Amino acid sequence: xxxxxxxxxxxxxxxxxxxxxxxxxxxxxxxxxxxxxxxxxxxxxxxxxxxxxxxxxxxxxxxxxxxxxxxxxxxxxxxxxxxxxxxxxxxxxxxxxxxxxxxxxxxxxxxxxxxxxxxxxxxxxxxxxxxxxxxxxxxxxxxxxxxxxxxxxxxxxxxxxxxxxxxxxxxxxxxxxxxxxxxxxxxxxxxxxxxxxxxxxxxxxxxxxxxxxxxxxxxxxxxxxxxxxxxxxxxxxxxxxxxxxxxxxxxxxxxxxxxxxxxxxxxxxxxxxxxxxxxxxxxxxxxxxxxxxxxxxxxxxxxxxxxxxxxxxxxxxxxxxxxxxxxxxxxxxxxxxxxxxxxxxxxxxxxxxxxxxxxxxxxxxxxxxxxxxxxxxxxxxxxxxxxxxxxxxxxxxxxxxxxxxxxxxxxxxxxxxxxxxxxxxxxxxxxxxxxxxxxxxxxxxxxxxxxxxxxxxxxxxxxxxxxxxxxxxxxxxxxxxxxxxxxxxxxxxxxxxxxxxxxxxxxxxxxxxxxxxxxxxxxxxxxxxxxxxxxxxxxxxxxxxxxxxxxxxxxxxxxxxxxxxxxxxxxxxxxxxxxxxxxxxxxxxxxxxxxxxxxxxxxxxxxxxxxxxxxxxxxxxxxxxxxxxxxxxxxxxxxxxxxxxxxxxxxxxxxxxxxxxxxxxxxxxxxxxxxxxxxxxxxxxxxxxxxxxxxxxxxxxxxxxxxxxxxxxxxxxxxxxxxxxxx
Length: 727
Description:
By secondary structure, this protein is of the alpha+beta class. It contains 13 helices and 45 strands. Among the domains are: 2-168 and 205-272, glycosyl hydrolase (family 31) (Immunoglobulin-like); 607-726, Immunoglobulin-like, CATH 2.60.40.1180. Helix content is 20%, strand content 25%. Strand 10 (110-117) and strand 11 form a beta hairpin.
């Protein structure tokens, strides 16, 4: 690795006119290129290593400050030029001389000292002006490095052993990531270790830090290339405590944002990447998938019986998510085709679902097996990811066969996808697409996408296809809607920042175990702290054995107040997790699902807040109570919105739950949602947690609107508000 050196810094008044409008400071490297700095708001700045030959990828699909719910302006399909600063209200910047004559640039909230030059490595030191405290400091011994042979670029930052790190998307284990080395690379991670597994499905290079002074800072590295974040795993005596980001043959282009609270930082990041889509209200209800049913030889009959069983057991359910079984022949899956031997009349079964109040979501995959009916035509049109050395479609193993991935940077591939979605899914009576198996884990090192006639190697564009696939699905559904104002719903398993503009997501193919139940709670909260708010988990575990009655019930209780509640599984012998599979706990399972519907008005308000104010729906307790240091410790508890604290039971045989209730201002206490018992804030408590109870607590003084169905009816997502509970 070679440090990047420069003769000196140049600040805005001295910059050439061509760059003055977009850059507040720059330092030219002796090897060519520049380190550039621009303030984008009083609390946000951008730092870029601009190579002499220009960016390796001059476009971005993540940065979308004008794409929020109010603005309604998305990034062009072909991307946004990296130099484009549209949508940012750039603040006034003042210049002064700091210690040792180093220039300092300041807004009203944030200052940066420009250090280094000559034979001294360039570095930046950022200060929060309200407190006078340092929020981030580049490593003095070398902060910006590059590796000539591989193209790797590195950013090194001073680390304090007492700092806390959060983010990076769907990460496992405790929320505080300090001491771990983690990768941003989407993988099909079926059966992953819920505590230590990495990477999972998302590419999400955003880290939020709590400094030792209680300030918060976020760093987003805008790259689609594979990244490795070392958050204190590596130690080198010559450099002191540090953390690093390695970007494999990509661009070093990062955004820094500061705040007094985690909410301030996260809101800036989510606004930067385009805000959060507000889905239709029906998508907030309980949903079921049953791959075993759709894979069965008599699938339509099995699903017909499933609908009747839902009614028989009086299970509240708002949607059914078709697995890919509708398109299967044996173990193989053929997207946008119906197996009519299993589904003789798809429209009829789909209509029966709709008649019973269930919307439908169909699984769709971006890879076509080489014997797919459309494969040859699409291959002749060059619609697939291709080998740059041969110009031929890349063919690799996929779902017990060989296949090729669609290239979503080719307009004709997008057009085919959207046309098939309309004909085979939407016109068959299905409401939405579920974008699955879209990690684009292509191994061929010569694979590339067309990039709208600007070729992009796959190692620098892999996550983009999950994003574009999801966008293609979203826009096709929007165009098909009966009313322009109709809300659109879709799901994606993989993707980079930007996916939240279109889709819900989840923690992927988890395994049935008590450990998964416990650690998935943290993974969901980590995704929320990363800017993915509409999240959840496969209830009861996707892979592995069927859960026993106790584990199953506790899983339902733990997830019934997550943004997404979907019971999705694929078990041996074509069995599935179903709400009534353990008769001894069916009443309690039904009650937990019914609790979700009772709290639907409150849950919907949380979704609206997420869309309008960029705040997560589920949150670690420290998010709401950042001054309560006990909340930084690992915990099973989480907040739903501003007022509800959820305390799931995650240990076998546990019938009492010990938990900490955070400090509240104004002498307020916590109130047990069920018993109305008052419990002191800022203290530990042991509360009853019998098998049928989910401990749930409310901030004293809160008002919670609850819904109720009509007499004798099963709860629905659109039940009216029955009363407002005062706590």
